[in-house]
Amino acid sequence: MKSKLAALSVATAVLLVLCAPSLHAQSLFPPQQDLDKITAAGIHAHMEFLADDLLEGRGTGTRGYQLAANYVRAEFEQLGLAPAGDNGTYFQQVRLRQVTPNPANDSLVIERGGQRTQLAFEKDYVMPGDSAHEDASASGGMVFVGYGVTAPDQHYDDYAGIDAKGKIVVTIFNAPPAFPSSVRAFYSDGFVKQRNAAAHGAIGIIGIWTGEQAKNTPWSAIIAFTHQPNMNWLDKNGTPNDYVPELRAKALVNGSSAEVFFAGAPHTLDQAMASITAAKPLSFPLEGRLDMRESAKFTALQSPNIAAVLPGSDPTLKNEYVILSAHVDHVGIGDAVNGDTIYNGAVDNASGTAALLEIAKAFAEGSQCPKRSVLFLAVTGEEAGLLGSDYFAHFPTVPIKQIAANVNMDGVSILYEFKDIVALGADHSTLAEPVDDVAHHLGLEVSPDPMPEENFFIRSDQYSFVKQGVPALTISEGFKTVDPALDGKKMQVDWIQTRYHTPQDDMQQPLNFKAARLCTEVLFAVGYEIANAPERPHWNPGDIFGQRFAKQ
Hints:
With 552 residues, the protein is of the alpha/beta class. Helices cover 31% and strands 23% of the residues.
């Protein structure tokens, strides 16, 4: 009897060891035959069509964009996915207002000691145009308010002890570098800063383009970006999104021209930058009065999101939706660069749309149907301010409370073969778990945000869902390369400086489709695990985004 009990004890011990919980014991990683549905050739083929000159850069509201939308719709339909747009269709129409600045009527003038200093449009400043009025103006005294950030959770307030009522606030672009990456991105959001300025009584706002981000994106690129379409979506009453009526005018000023605002002030711009960069708020009144006039022309447009759904197989979980998203639009036709005026948007974001279509194929033709429903969402207007995704998040075609998570793809990894991934947003929720598991299975590392100064987390469509309380993330490559001779950081910074939002983002640039396929597999596998997990994703306890947005 003792021998049998001993044997039983050993067997039980072995069983306990084998069944002990570990990070990967409950892996939901997809079968290899499902991953094999994703091919480099498929990604290349979709990109070839979407980035072709025929589509003229897929500008929001243009014929070229509609051709791309029809292509995506046809792919969804061919895969047998059900329509998830308006009225039983694959399209959700988004009503838009294009705001085109009218620089001939713009002005930015500082009055000080009886002298008037008029800044020069584009050389010194740019204005986006007011989204509710074709002519807008603000006049008043000025106060410097650092980054323009009030962050109780970070024990930081640029407005402490300063009176901004009836004033025009002068701010530095970005937020304190000491903030965690995604938190810094949140407080860098222009709309968040504008609402904060209005809450403190400001009537206008100036942003100064200087610091870390200005090193990666020079003022000449900012000027080029302002020549690209600027839009807002409109609700049923014709009200533009993210509009702050208390602020009567806005401008962005070149850092090299900004010292003029600090003449006669107790501190120079350099002194102020040194203080706030060290997370030490330094705010103070500025001498003189600022007169701002902002002029623009409005054009009415309409452009569709494209949505399709694969119903889930679980009787209960099928009522929850995992949204996989990518933006179809780019910026269309613009200023000539090296004789080319078509901004093809191959990497940004024909690659993400191609990945979305390959992932849709992998799900639709997979070995088993996911437990949760998967909604494939290809959106419009991302380049004009995340408009399509923000509209969908405000007016979803499925109940917002039933959206479990969003996985967004914006420019899949296609420059070099990589050894690590960056999952922006994953650290705020339980979405970190499937990311870690997928990375483990594919032999990849998970790295923190290597470029927090760029605020990438708030600059793509996942952020629209975060603001509606939905856990969301986007995944890209890190700087660690398979080929040690390649410098991942240098390649990415070089791409931003030479190809981002230029006609040179086309299919003739060096592209690595082996890397693109691996990145697409990562995105598919993360979506697959979320769709099949027993527990719905949730925000981490005390998380800034969960606290601010989940209760909505």
